[in-house]
Design goal:
The chain has 83 residues and is mainly α. Helices cover 54% and strands 0% of the residues. The protein has a domain at 34-73. 13% of the residues are buried.
């Protein structure tokens, strides 16, 4: 019989939230998204998931979320191009 390794995620505590909140705030502000919107909820979910996966540097986390959500295209002067 096969076994599946299901690991329970570590609790997300106040320190984790304190690390993620500024990144979330910056992303929604720069994207012009209302914090109560579905888009903001998706951004928050991506921030938390990447953080749980070990992305702890705020700038790196922000860049990864922008890429995941396609937000980089909203920045003037962006050097990113569609593939």
């Amino acid at each position: 019989m096969k076994s599946i390794d299901v690991r329970k995620p570590q609790p997300f505590d106040a320190r984790d939230l304190a690390a993620c909140q500024p990144v979330f705030d910056t992303l929604v502000r720069e994207a012009g998204v209302d914090k109560a919107s579905e888009e903001a909820a998706r951004i928050a979910a991506i921030v938390v998931e990447l953080y749980r996966q070990g992305v702890r540097d705020a700038e790196h986390l922000r860049i990864m979320v922008e890429g995941a959500r396609g937000l980089f295209s909203r920045h003037a002067g962006s050097s990113h191009a569609a593939a």
